[in-house]
Amino acid sequence: MTKKKLRSQAWYNSERIKDAFLHRSWMRNQGFPDHLFDGRPVIGICNTWSELTPCNHHFRKIAEHVKRGIYEAGGFPLEFPVFSCGESNLRPTAMLFRNLASMDVEEAIRGNPIDGVVLLVGCDKTTPSLVMGAASCDIPTIAVSGGPMLNGHYKGELIGSGTHVWKFSEMVRGGQMTAEEFYRAESAMSRSAGHCMTMGTASTMGSMVEALGLGMPHNAAIPAVDARRYVLAHMAGQRVVDLVHQDVRLSRILTRDAFKNAIRVNGAIGGSTNAVIHLLAMAGRMGIDLSLDDWDEFGRDIPTIVDLQPSGRFLMEDFYYAGGVPAVIRRLGEAGLIERDALTVNGNTIWENNADAECNNDEVIRPLDRPLTPQGGIAVLRGNLAPDGAIIKPSAADPKLMTHRGRAIVFESIEELHERIDDPNLDVDETCVLVLKNCGPKGYPGMAEVGNMPLPPKVLEKGITDMVRISDARMSGTAYGTVVLHVAPEAAAGGPLALVQEGDMVELDVPNRRLHLDVSEEELARRRAQWQAPAPAMSSGYQKLYVDHVMQADKGADFDFLVGCRGAEVPRESH
Ligand code: FES
């Protein structure tokens, strides 16, 4: 068998000796010896380490363990930084930069002498941005998540990242918690390296990486500070060298069956609504036909069996000890809900990896016949208010509000919501429907995580903790409530959401997947004729590129010009 020439050889063993000299010589200033240029696989370690992304601040140590594995397997590791979308600091929202980061990743891989890549991912957007960029190149790839923080504890209570920020801030607004107690809870929540340890977006995406077969078994749940996280990184480094030798590219892993598995696992873990948008974008890069309706079809009857916050009680550390994603996949697979032959990066099928997984705690990972929510998954709603779809996560919502008709309280922007929501004169009660506009991909821009609008104090004071809320925004994966999100088309793109007025009646019918604005067609036409698009926040720079090219939520909010796989053909020489 003729050995396939690796793409790195076009740099380090180029027939044009001047070019080969040039590429090798500058690398030698780092102290790399001759034998590393002998034709062995060059493995990029794509690192989102940043002190501005606290969830990924331990990634240089993870990279060192990946390197050990790569060297051990005869590869040549080279670590490189890419734009790191840190959720807690980046404004106006990290999502605005997901596509930008994916472009960085794609071009860094294609433009450099890289034969295979390990993606170091963790904080919410770092996972999809790196996977999207790698998918557009289609080289052998393994993703290694940084792992969740240790459980938070405060006053004898398990407290979860994000989830308790929402809960505690509502308690402060409702007068049940002091500002001093609120301040004390900060360091009790985030007490170790790692990403949010609720089943928020980061943990969900770590689980998606595992369910897609793109990560090693247990990728999602091993705590960031557990030594086994470093063993996993080591083994991923070792394994990616084999993937290069066997030419197992990402397109062999990210198949439609892999996405079906991920959608079902998302339902079972009660995963974040953000997974919808990210998986649609990832599939789009891989050229896989995945639609919003697939989320409903494959996820509809999946019971949520993982009892983690924000839907349930426990946290990621408990999930790992209970058996993690492998135990979930086993339970789904035994019920015929896993595409068993999907290939994973360690060379086994998903079923070979997980058929014997043990569940050590039936409270954390429940049996299918004793679920947290019988129909988990993501419900995709349609109707005259969302012709291209909207979503809701039933496991995080109040079952009593799944069918609801209420009077709309309308906020044209997030600023207006902040101005009015605490106003004692706001004419609102718990039967109303809060409607927020202009927070979608183009409108915010970047589709902010503001869909879980705070409740008005006059409702909170009655002890009521949930109301129907509708917007074109996203919601943090750590948040909860009867919150309809991702309404498409969004208000700023002229979707029907833009036409809702205060006092209109809105109908939510989750069992029948319907979202309806009870206003006549004639009246809506009259309002449409008067509607004017809001002025863009910025008329130049990256934000202009974003607003001009971002697609709607039902298409994954990727840029129209980034969809598809462009491969990793070696670019021409410039010297
Ligand atoms: Fe980084 Fe939650 S803020 S994962």
Number of domains: 3
How are the strands ordered across the major sheet? 12-11-10-9-13-14
User: From the coordinates shown, what is the CATH architecture of the largest domain?
Assistant: 3-Layer(aba) Sandwich
Bound compounds, each kind once, are: FE2/S2 (inorganic) cluster
Give the count of helical stretches: 20
Largest sheet: 6 strands, mixed
Described by the principal axes of the CA atoms, the overall outline is globular
Assigned CATH class of the largest domain: Alpha Beta
Percent of sequence in beta strands: 5-15%
Identify the CATH homologous superfamily of the largest domain: Response regulator
Q: What's the assembly state of these chains?
A: single chain
Radius of gyration: 24 Å
Indicate the CATH topology of the largest domain. Answer: Rossmann fold
Q: What's the mean pLDDT score?
A: 96
Helix % is 25-40%
> Separation of termini?
34 Å
The assigned structural class equals alpha/beta
Q: Uncertain segments of ≥5 residues (pLDDT<50)? A: none
Number of distinct beta strands: 14
